[in-house]
Amino acid sequence: MNVDISYIRRKFYTSYNGILAKCKSADEFVRLSLVISFCLPLLCYCIGSLDFTSGQIKDLAVCWNDCYRRIFGFKRYELVKLLQFYCKELPFEYIVQTI
């Protein structure tokens, strides 16, 4: 079975941009908490039941990393894995393994 992740990515970015547009003046950790609550389930939906390739998991991880980059003002080439650990969150690859 071939899985198309473009719909998942589009829904994630739509909800993510909507939250960040409404919460411009909020603290970074408040914005992160909202994104974790509302947007992360969109990325994780059906991961356990469908057979995603490792490339598709990496593409979804890029979406999750872009979220941290935008909230905390990181550049595209900067790593966010340490920031995720600092925020007591796992990188997306580890979230997928726990599902």
Structure description:
It is a single chain. The chain has 99 residues and is mainly alpha-helical. It has one domain (6-98). The protein is built from six helices and no strands. Helix 1 (6-22) packs antiparallel against helix 2, helix 1 runs parallel beside helix 4 and helix 2 runs antiparallel to helix 4. The longest helix has 19 residues, at 54-72. The protein is globular, with a radius of gyration of 13 Å.
Sum this structure up briefly.
This protein is mainly α. It has six helices and no strands.
The proportion of residues forming helix, as a percent range, comes to 55-70%
Overall number of domains: 1
| C-alpha Rg (nearest Å) | 13 Å
How many E strands?
0
Average pLDDT, to the nearest integer?
A: 88
Number of helices: 6
Counting helices, strands and paired strands, the structural category is mainly alpha
What's the helix-strand series? HHHHHH
Tell me the distance between the termini.
20 Å
Shape field: globular
Low-confidence sequence ranges: none
Strand content: under 5%
Biggest beta-sheet profile? none
